[in-house]
Amino acid sequence: MKRVLILLTIFLLTGCTNIKKQTEILSDTIVNLIYDCNYDISNLSNDNKRILNDLLEKEKYENKTINISKLNLFKEDGRDLSYPTTNGVYKENNEYFIKYSDLNFIKDDSMLESMSYIFVEGYPIAFSKDEYPIIQTDTCGNVNYRYRYMKREKEKNNMIYYYKSFGNGGMLKIIYKLNKNKIEDIDLIFNKYYID
């Protein structure tokens, strides 16, 4: 019985260690890919290459989708029902989404960054291009997308890595959605400010 418990403990610890090591390797690769367009991924395992390619495919201009409902921007005092919901906004499972390609980013001399403005059920929502970049297209060689590691946290079924920009002090969160010590999905969240 003791032997079974010891073997079970070793197995569980090895699984946790493997997922920690895998997320560390992938996080380092993602951070390097964001800034350095010529970064080589040939040294990754086939599983990590697949996971990374899935992320890069999801982050492409024509595929990227933003879950507007998760932004927590719907405040009653900002609602004006005279503005219709912007074309391209759609509702799925009681959440609002918009494809990145449906956002129209504009910048004029009075603005520091490119912005896109939409309405959802009368709520105004602004998107900064800096917080929704297209990996490699918008990020390569841009010091604002060169990051240093800050910390790692484990939450329920997520492993989250936090990075801070060398350029503007902004933040990158890499969120690994886990299921039984396997990576199911990766989300990237860019923010203009580092939130600790």
Properties at a glance:
2 domains; alpha+beta; globular; Nuclear Transport Factor 2, Chain: A; 4-stranded antiparallel β-sheet; 196 residues; 9 strands
In the CATH hierarchy, the third-tier topology of the largest domain is known as Nuclear Transport Factor 2, Chain: A
In DSSP terms (H or I, runs of 4 or more residues), the helix count works out at 2
The helix/strand series, from N terminus to C terminus, equals HHEEEEEEEEE
Q: Indicate the structural class.
A: alpha+beta
Q: Roughly what fraction of the amino acids lie in strands?
A: 25-35%
Overall pLDDT score: 86
Provide the helix percentage. Answer: 10-25%
Integer count of domains? 2
Number of strands: 9
> How are strands sequenced across the largest beta sheet?
6-7-8-9
CATH class of the largest domain: Alpha Beta
What radius of gyration results from the CA coordinates? 20 Å
Give an overview in words:
By secondary structure, this protein is α+β, with helices and mostly antiparallel strands. It has two domains: 15-58 and 135-191, Nuclear Transport Factor 2, Chain: A (Roll), CATH 3.10.450; 65-131, no CATH class. The chain has helices spanning 2-35, 46-58; strands spanning 65-67, 89-92, 95-99, 115-120, 123-128, 147-155, 158-165, 171-178, 183-191. A four-stranded antiparallel beta sheet has the order 6-7-8-9. Strands 1-3-2 form a three-stranded antiparallel beta sheet, with no helix packed on it. It has a two-stranded antiparallel sheet with strand order 4-5. A hairpin with a 2-residue loop joins strand 2 (89-92) and strand 3 (95-99). The chain is globular, with a radius of gyration of 20 Å.
